[in-house]
Amino acid sequence: MRTIMAISLALLMVLTLVLVVIGATPKVMVNPCIFTSSFTKTNETAGEIGNTTWLHTVVVSSASAGGYLRLFDRDGSTTNAEIGRVDLGTLNTYLFDVCLSSGLTYITNGNAGGVTITYR
Predict the structure, then answer these.
(1) Which of 7, 81, 84, 85 has its CA 20 to 30 A from that of 93?
(2) Domain count of the chain?
(3) Is residue 15 part of a domain?
């Protein structure tokens, strides 16, 4: 009887220890309100941001007269529709909030001041 009680107590202690370790494991939370950003100040024929599922905004904080930014729902060689074209000559925040199917590719021309793209 004592042997059965000792084994039961040992199993109970092991189970308690396992539950404590599992409970102490940090949980990774993905906050949909936090975006990643990418800044570019160069002219690119095909800048790509892979693994992107959501385009939030484009921020032009330093104007480049005559410059533009074109955005595509694209990743690698898969090209879908053009999402939009942004005038880099005007300081502004352009809100897109659009779902992307295969990543984001952008093309900049006349990009002397720089542009920031926020996404997730």
Answers:
(1) 81
(2) 1
(3) no
H helices present in 1-120, as ranges: 2-24
Give CA–CA dist 34/118, Å, rounded: 10
Residue 28, in any domain of the structure: no
Distance set, CA 112 to CA 9, 68, 88, 105 (Å): 71, 10, 9, 19
Q: Would you give the DSSP letter of residue 65?
A: T
Which of 1-5, 17-21, 40-44 is least confident?
17-21
Residue with tokens 């484009």: 58
What's residue 55's pLDDT?
A: 92
Q: How far apart are CA 108 and CA 88, in angstroms?
A: 9
Q: Residue 94: which domain range?
A: 36-119
What is residue 21's predicted lDDT score, i.e. its pLDDT?
A: 56
Query: What whole-number distance in Å separates Cα of residue 44 and Cα of residue 64?
Result: 15
Q: Per DSSP, what are the bridge partners of residue 68?
A: 87, 109
